[in-house]
Write a structure and sequence with these properties.
With 259 residues, this protein is mainly alpha-helical. It has helices spanning 2-28, 35-64, 79-82, 88-94, 100-114, 124-133, 144-155, 169-182, 195-205, 222-237, 240-248, 254-257; strands at 213-215, 251-253. It is built from 12 helices and 2 strands; from the N terminus they run H-H-H-H-H-H-H-H-H-E-H-H-E-H. Helix 1 (2-28) runs antiparallel to helix 7 (144-155) and helix 9 (195-205) crosses helix 10.
């Protein structure tokens, strides 16, 4: 059983690595020649793809329980509207005037996402979306065709491609990107700490519910993710207030302290 699980994880990693490589190949021919250029671009696009998948799953669970679910984004700003191949907004824009798709992404989508945090009753998730898009002014990719090709390949990235040692798809994808940045003396040689070391360090530090955790060099978020897992059972034992604090007030990065 253990061997089968290990083999599945290896296959998942190979599949994801292949998907990320094909995306990066398009980025390199699209005015993003180096990893220091295409990694930031891919990060925000991948984030929106994964956000859409997560909220679609949450909406399904809410419907099964007869609960109300309010998504963070509404049409036409959801991934399924503007990025997915059969999305209504994408089809309308790509069949319209030349350059209309870029106009929407640069002049409508990105500005809207950046200002979500200014809404009177912005949710914590909407504030995160705005923070992630805060440094994005426009798409760096040179042509609409290349952008659409990239979106199609990113849309194919799914949770099935990610082994179960990663609770967040983004962290697994980002690790693959960092590995590519360090290949063959590339311009963004990066390193990330092995998860066994992360787990040992978190266990030694022994964070408690109600404490805040600061990671000034967030990277792939490995320390924050492992700290979350370490605290989750403890928070559940301490009740709903502790769980809410863990979700919304526990973790800090360098961006938070620069405000």
């Amino acid at each position: 059983m253990a061997k089968t699980k290990k083999t599945a994880n290896q296959n998942n990693r190979t599949s994801l690595k292949s998907e990320i490589k094909s995306i990066c190949d398009i980025m390199r021919r699209s005015n993003c020649a180096g990893a220091m250029q295409y990694v930031p671009e891919l990060t925000w696009i991948l984030f929106l793809r994964i956000l859409d998948a997560r909220e679609e799953s949450e909406a399904g669970i809410a419907a099964a329980l007869d609960n109300t679910f309010v998504p963070s984004l509404s049409a036409p700003y959801r991934w399924k509207d503007w990025a997915k191949k059969n999305g209504a907004t994408r089809e309308e824009l790509t069949s319209g005037k030349l350059g209309g798709y870029f106009e929407f992404v640069n002049g409508n989508l990105i500005p809207h996402l950046k200002t979500l945090k200014e809404m009177p009753e912005a949710t914590p998730r909407q504030k995160v979306i705005s923070e992630i898009l805060s440094g994005v002014e426009r798409v760096r990719i040179d042509t609409e065709k290349n952008l659409l090709d990239i979106l199609d390949k990113i849309d194919a990235v799914s949770g099935d491609s990610v082994d179960d040692t990663h609770i967040f798809t983004m962290s697994r994808v980002y690790e693959e990107l960092l590995l590519k940045m360090g290949e063959k003396g590339n311009d963004g040689g990066q390193f990330f700490t092995p998860r066994e070391i992360i787990r040992a360090l978190v266990k030694v530090i022994d964070p408690k519910p109600g404490e805040t955790i600061y990671d000034p060099c967030c990277g792939t978020g490995g320390f924050l993710v492992q700290s979350y897992l370490y605290l989750l059972d403890k928070a559940r034992k301490n009740g709903a207030a502790a769980i809410e604090f863990l979700k919304h007030n526990t973790f800090r990065t360098s961006n938070y302290y620069r405000r």
